[in-house]
Description:
The protein is an all-alpha fold and 244 residues long. The protein folds into two domains: 59-168, Alpha Horseshoe (Serine Threonine Protein Phosphatase 5, Tetratricopeptide repeat); 171-235, no CATH class. It contains twelve helices and no strands. The model is unreliable at 9-30 and 228-244 (pLDDT under 50).
Amino acid sequence: MKALIAGLSLLLLGGCATNGQPPWGALTATGSCPKPGADQELSLNLADEMANDGKLHASLANLQGLPANLPQVRLRQAKAYRLLGRSEAEPLYRSLIGTCMAAEGEHGLGQLASAKGENGQAMAHLQRAARLAPTDEKIRNDLGVVYLNQLRVEDARFEFITAMELKQSDPLAAINLVTLLIYQDNWKQAAQLVSQMGLNPDQVTEAQARAEKLKGSSAPVAKAEASAKNQVATVSDAPSNPRN
């Protein structure tokens, strides 16, 4: 599998708050995270299991009994609230900046911005997250998605391949790379990647649908650029008015 990814790389790279601060702000020193106790670890693990099973409300209920000064608690709360579409997610992610989980905080803020279609903000957060945690494949993948949404195709390709090499068992970046290749009408490489990574038909259908959506979003831009070029040509080709 490592040889496969390397080959693909060569092929494809051609409470109340005071002073505007949350109540937990003074509880966690910058750049540090207090270590949870054994019982707290068990509660965190239980919350993770429930979240993985889609029981986000139950996960949040289990987290309520844990101290808010633990960034590990706030991160899990933020993720659950984000998936539930609730506004509590953003301040919780922001509270992680300056702790040992700053990368996760920037990542979450990037995900929130991306979901709103705010690609510039998403890119800024995800670039900071990638600098803080350069080997986190989920951050690299999500940064690639934002680049692709902006039609920065080569930047997106780089991030997807990086994510694939970092974690070869996760198909998400491969699906996104197939989306990019279909968007470019590069069906041959897309088919090779699908076969080599063992993607299933549903994953391919998802990639194709997203690629068609990208093509639809880029068509008005291309049309406007073509129209502007035609107008320039018309003006430059027009005869000058004779002078008296």
